[in-house]
Amino acid sequence: MRRLRGVALFGCMAALASVASAAAAVPAELASHLATYRMGLSSSRSGSGMSNAGGAWTYKFVDSCDGWVTEFRLVMTYAYSEGGQIETTTDFLGWESKDGLSYRFRVRQARDGQVTEEVEGTARLNGAGQGGIARYTRPEVYTVKLPKGTLFPTAHTIRLIETARAGGRILSRPLFDGQGDEGPFDTSAQIGRAVTAQPATLNSPLLESPVWPMRMAFFPAGSTDPLPEFEMSLTYHPNGVAEDIEQIFKTFSLKGRLESIETLPRAKC
To answer: For position 199, what pLDDT does the model report?
Structure first.
């Protein structure tokens, strides 16, 4: 999907610091897996002009010994009330070091088979909890400063799960994933209490744990708009597998249903 990050509500930073310290004693263990989600239109609000949407999101996450590799492809077809439809494709590949300080990313966007955007680059933080620099090589060479506390995508997922496991309810951090040229987003996450997952329609040991419902809000860095650019709700298993995904934009929402999932073998390190 376009982005998979943060959740809603700001403040309580002192409380968050103590929660993060407690959570660090129980590190999250993320499972290498391949998942496919069936995407569809959840709601369409006035002014969107959208009558239907559907597609598939294939997501691959692998522990590569020295880091984590994330790869996905999202193919969506949008139909409009005045007629006509558009097919969009997003391909993403990212690598993140296990210390959370180094990151590489490549994104390609296409519309009706024609490439419309290519973004590629690297990012580096100066240390845990510190800021850093993102260096883009496409579509042009330039740098973006990353503010103090920035997290890369997998580090953000781990922090969400560790905060939830420690009983935390809010996580607000800058997040950089390289999807687009706008730099980091300010994210705010609201984390619900763990609940027993609904009976799984898929037979997989990856889905046999309780889940935490989360709602995330994404704001452009430095924005004064009280409304987020977009939101996301999902449920997370302790192994990092996500279910019940919904992306909420200003005029429409997309919902993803987990259609297939498989465990991928661990790399021989």
So the answer is: 60
Structure tokens, 117? 């955007």
How many other C-beta atoms lie within 10 A of the C-beta of residue 104? 18
The partner residues of 203 in beta bridges, in order of sequence, read: none
**Mean pLDDT, residues 67-79:** 96
Which whole-number Å values give the CA distances from 242 to 99, 143, 256, in the listed order?
Answer: 23, 32, 10
The stretches of the chain forming alpha helices (DSSP H) are 13-23, 153-165
Residue pLDDT, tens place only, 15-24: 233 333 333 3
pTM: 0.86
Q: Which helix (H) or strand (E) holds 190?
A: strand 185-191
Confirm if 63 and 80 have CB atoms less than 8 A apart.
Answer: no
- The whole-angstrom separation of Cα 171 and Cα 239 is 18
- Measured CA to CA, the distance from residue 77 to residue 84 in angstroms comes to 10
Helix (H), strand (E), coil (C) string for 210-263: CEEEEEEEEEECCCCCCCCCEEEEEEECCCCCEEEEEEECCCEEEEEEEEEEEE
Q: What is the mean pLDDT of residues 258-267?
A: 91
More confident of the two residues 26 and 174: 174
- Assess contact for 134 and 178: CB atoms under 8 A: yes
Q: DSSP secondary-structure letter at 122?
A: E
Q: Distance between CA atoms of 227 and 220, rounded to whole angstroms?
A: 10
Does residue 36 contact residue 245 with C-beta atoms inside 8 Å? no
What sign results for the dihedral spanned by CA atoms 230, 5, 238, 167? negative
- Report the 10 Å Cβ neighbour count for 259: 15
Q: What is the CA radius of gyration of the chain?
A: 18
Q: Could you tell me the maximum CA-CA distance found in the chain, to the nearest angstrom?
A: 55
